[in-house]
Amino acid sequence: MQQKVCYVTAFYDLNRSTWSRFARTTSVYIKSFLPLIPLVEEDANAECIVFLDDRHRVPELDETHSFRIIPINKEVLSTLHCWSTLDRERAIMESREFQELIPDRLHFPEHSIPEYTLINHSKVDFIREAMKYTDAPYFAWIDFGYFQLPQRIPQRLLDTTLLNNERINYTTIQPYQPLYSNILYTLRYAPECIGGFFFFGSREKMIEYRQLYHQVLAMFQEQYAIADDDQHIALVCYTKQPELFTLHNLGGWHRALTHFQIKS
């Protein structure tokens, strides 16, 4: 039976257009979000909550019926658990010990821009905040820039019967390997496994996952004194509590919505 799903996404402007590497403009982000609007509007079992930087506006959302816009800024972000660790994340990235650990990876934003890692770690917190505005039993995270390429756009949204409704669902780029449970190995070599751009689960399992995610992030920051992206955190969460997750190996990036879309 098809279930009601609240899709959650967020955009906070990190001035990425000015980055020397991996630059991306706000207009590209917004353009990569827009295909989600008709998909949600045309699905009777869908709604969407968008946490949007209050310095920006998406006019196309003005006449929608299934979207709720929650303005965010630095003050709002500071109330989120993951973002509240910003000072610690910055101290790690700027430490000599961390920089000497992965000198060949310091040009990546997940190892050099704390706001980047923490806005991604805050996905679980945004979902928890979204629960205040909806009674939906299921939630799906979708990155704001998910639809950057046409082949990522489905004809319809999720068929929830194709997902494990009793677990947190992630898609993988390649099958999980036991070696990935080695945190320092994954930090150094960044194997492509779990894709952080999409995950799905029930209200209850999302709350459970958020608690586990916070525990693993604290372990990274305090026990290991390292910083990395949300995909690594999710990977460690899986190794610690595999019974909470179902991993779907789709063999590539951003295939979740086309793979699990309603076919009929």
Explain this structure.
With about 260 residues, this protein is of the alpha/beta class. The chain has a single domain (about 5-260), classed as Spore Coat Polysaccharide Biosynthesis Protein SpsA, Chain A, CATH 3.90.550. The chain has helices at about 25-35, 35-40, 75, 85-95, 95-100, 115-120, 125-130, 185-190, 205-225, 230-240, 255-260; strands spanning about 5-10, 45-55, 65-70, 140, 170, 195-200, 245-250. The two termini are about 15 Å apart.
Per CATH, the class reads Alpha Beta
Silhouette: globular
Strand order of the largest sheet: 3-2-1-4-6-5-7
Question: Main sheet?
Answer: 7 strands, mixed
Whole-angstrom Rg: 18 Å
Give me the strand/helix succession. EHHEEHHHHHEEHEHHEH
Number of H- or I-type helical stretches: 11
CATH topology title: Spore Coat Polysaccharide Biosynthesis Protein SpsA, Chain A
Under the CATH scheme, the architecture is Alpha-Beta Complex
Q: Structural class, from secondary structure content?
A: alpha/beta
Q: What is the total number of structural domains?
A: 1
Task: Describe the structure in brief.
This protein is an alpha/beta fold. It contains 11 helices and 7 strands.
Notable features of this structure?
264 residues, alpha/beta, Spore Coat Polysaccharide Biosynthesis Protein SpsA, Chain A, 7 strands
What secondary-structure arrangement, pairings included, does this model have?
Elements: E1 5-11, H1 26-33, H2 36-41, E2 46-53, E3 67-72, H3 74-77, H4 86-94, H5 96-101, H6 114-121, H7 123-130, E4 138-142, E5 168-172, H8 183-189, E6 194-202, H9 203-224, H10 230-240, E7 245-249, H11 256-259
Parallel strand pairs: 1-2, 1-4, 2-3, 5-7
Antiparallel strand pairs: 4-6, 5-6
